Amino acid sequence: MNVPKKVTLVEVGPRDGLQNEPEAISTATKVTFIKKLAEAGLPIIECTSFVHPKWVPQLADAADVLAELDLQGEARFPVLVPNMKGMQRAIDSGVKEIAVFTAASETFNKKNINMSIDESLQAVAEIMQSAQQHDIKVRAYVSTCFGCPYEGTIPAEKVLAVVQKLLALRAYEVSLGDTIGVANPQQVEHVLSLLLASTPAEQLAVHFHDTRGTALANILTSLQLGITTIDSSAGGLGGCPYAPGAAGNVATEDVVFMLEGMGIETGVNLEKLVDATQLIAQSIDRPLPGKYFQAAMAQRNK
Ligand code: HMG
Ligand code: MG
């Protein structure tokens, strides 16, 4: 099978996952979770966000979480930033990397961050300027690339236009969000083929939520098209508070199991990853959906 030999996983459980879990999780538990994810070999862990604490109270302790992490160490700890106010909070916390976000759907963007797509690109431009001054790396997300809870199917050309603007603003990578988990492999091939005609695969990542069980199939299609960066969430934690019905991201364990089984290097130790997920699972009031995690826990509890 024609797939890459090595893949970079971007762990988003502590941010995308925990932003949508209703339980109050202590800062200490979050920090231990993040450190255990790093010990498991995950190279990039999006650890929190500097959005408005009124909208996402789960991550209101962002600065306290960052204060406990080694930002000079081997693992990278980007944070999500929506605007200049969030950027200033991130700078004050000493971050070296951030992720900005917009969407391919106007309605979703408005509901998510109260900005039109153009307004959010203007905000990204300001953030980029500040990031350059502070030597901060910037990744970008585009939400609703494969479908919107309000507008339905999104034309691939709309995704292309937003991706090209983010790359022109010097984001080092754009992650394509299937925010509500509606993509299928044929659609992924359609959207990615259009983007790859003008953008190197190294500048694109995929971010599938597994709402309808298609995430692994979509990842396999992405790999076959040359994508080498995949976002995932430990245990399949989370969802999106502004995308009704969205389930968590594809579970990191399931991705690692599939990739390593295919001989694709991830650098992640599955047993240690399960240890990390087991820790956070104790704070979540429902069984986590990740399939590998469930199987591993059944083994451990035998
Ligand atoms: P707004 O109300 O339009 O903000 O919210 P504003 O600029 O009008 O300011 C209003 C007040 O909020 C002001 O305070 C600001 O200082 C304050 P006041 O002067 O009234 O006292 N404020 C802030 N405070 C703290 N941190 C900030 C901040 N910004 C303004 N950053 C805003 C706009 C973007 C802030 C708001 O809509 C928001 O925080 N939204 C949260 C959205 C969110 O977190 N969504 C989930 C993450 S995205 C996602 O999950 C998708 C992704 O995973 C990819 C995928 O799956 O598709 C990435
Ligand atoms: Mg997401």
Rounded mean pLDDT is 96
Tally of alpha and pi helices: 12
Class, according to the CATH hierarchy?
A: Alpha Beta
According to DSSP, the number of beta strands is 9
Helix content: 40-55%
**CATH H-level name... which superfamily?**
Aldolase class I
User: Strand fraction band?
Assistant: 5-15%
- The low-confidence parts are none
Order of secondary-structure elements = EHHEEHEHEHHEHEHEHEHHH
Please state the structural category: alpha/beta
In words, what does this structure look like?
There is one protein chain. This protein has one domain (8-300): TIM Barrel. Helices cover 41% and strands 13% of the residues. β6, α7 (156-168) and β7 form a beta-alpha-beta unit. It is α/β, with parallel strands linked by helices and 302 residues long. The mean pLDDT is 96. The protein starts with 7 loop residues before the first strand and ends with a helix. α2 (27-39) packs antiparallel against α11 (270-281). The chain has a nine-stranded parallel sheet. The site of 3-hydroxy-3-methylglutaryl-coenzyme A has 25 residues, from α4, α5 and β6.
Summarize this structure briefly.
The protein has 302 residues and is an alpha/beta fold.
Attribute tags:
nine-stranded parallel sheet; TIM Barrel; 13% strand; binds magnesium ion; globular; 302 residues; alpha/beta; single chain; binds 3-hydroxy-3-methylglutaryl-coenzyme A
